Predict the structure.
Amino acid sequence: MMDDQLVDTWNIHTRINLYLLDAIPPEALEGTVGGKGRSAGAMFAHIHNTRCTWLELTPELLKGLEKIPKEKVADKKLLRKSLEASGKAMATLIEAGIQTGKIKGFKPHPAAFVGYAIAHESYHHGEIGIVLSQSGHPLDKKVAYGMWEWGVRLGQRIRRITRIAIRRIHQIRCLTCAPAVPPPPPPPDPFQT
């Protein structure tokens, strides 16, 4: 049970990355603060490239993935496609790590690795928000707060399971609580003329 929760946690986090990226206009991906430092696009590329560095230790998981070069960090479609693919590969790495009890090149254990990876990427979420704000493209408040709504970002599979469970609970309640025959109408009031 806990193993599934770790992978689900990673997948929710991955969807939050994509939610953030989707909310940024393409022209805002290139902006930096005072012409220095990383742009928002460069930080998304860094997130993907760091995932690839971890995946290099398990080459079969790296198949089809390439690091994003500096000259392509503002390509929103490439960033999204790359983040989706590396997110899935990392989920597979985490699942395999849970089965073996370790992530190659990381200590102490897979649960700590998930925490480490999410902390690293979330740090860059904050940086992205600052760079966007200071370069004249602040995040919409709905998006800024939406990044914290993990329950909303559960994903299709979990939402479907939740809907089915709620429907079944409702059906059970209807069967046990609903009267079989509607109650009779009240008798006429004898004092009314």
Notes: The chain has seven helices and no strands.
